[in-house]
Amino acid sequence: MRSPMHGSEFSQNASRLAADDTNPYEPELGSLPNRSVDAEDIQELKTGTTTIGLTTNDGVVMVTDQRASLGNMVSSKTAQKVEQVHPSAALTISGSVSAAQSLIRTLKVERNLYDSRRGEEMSMTALSTLTSNLLRSGGFLITVPVLGGVDEEGGHIYSYDALGGVTEETYSVSGSGSQFALGVLEQDYHEDLSQDEAREVAIRALKSAVERDTASGNGMWLAEIDAEGVEISNYEDYDEAL
Question: Is 117 helix (H, G, I), strand (E, B) or coil?
């Protein structure tokens, strides 16, 4: 015998709700998206380089090569891999070019906002923390910078990983030629270097890297930072800067 409610909208809704044993009060668990990454896409994002930063008695010396690569091809022979981001600080870049350029622009904007709002220059500690937070945000992946700057305490070099981890070092390197540059730095660096001595050590380390790393070469960018500011220049011949 059919009930008076048979075939009604209420009975149809009740039937749908009773179709399984799912507890309506249990949380629904999502699933991870099925994301596959093509190895060729990753290769296109990689850019080899060698960047070096050293602290000195009077400030900081930073050098980079000028070659940008796209896979096995040299995409640029004049790439600038160190830029001023503060009146007394500069940042070297390695990794994804677009992400690094965006990081530099963002640092400059945030530093200007900080100065305008507070009426004082951002400290090296604040600048290093800002850089770390930006990398940790995930918007600048595959970027491994070295930050160098000078304040009333002297020269500072900050080393980062791609996820925003930061450590302050007396010297640091990044890029595909790092291991070759480190061999020279481990042997020749000491904390009492003058600016001229640090320039020589940094250039020797860079020359060692470009001799063995095929993704580094085509000249050099040199940044010298002291209490008076940041001076950036480039050289086709490494020995011209000595």
Answer: helix
DSSP 78: S
Please name the residue ranges forming H helices in 18-75: 39-45
Please name the residues in contact with 132: beta carbons below 8 A apart, sequence gap of 6 or more: 160, 164, 165, 166
Strand ranges, E, within the chain: 51-55, 60-65, 68-70, 73-76, 82-86, 89-92, 146-151, 154-160, 166-169, 171-174, 220-226, 229-235
Q: The pTM is what?
A: 0.80
The residues assigned a catalytic role are 49
Name the residue with tokens 């009077």: 58
Give 116-164 pLDDT, tens digit per residue: 999 999 999 999 999 999 999 888 878 999 999 999 999 999 999 988 9
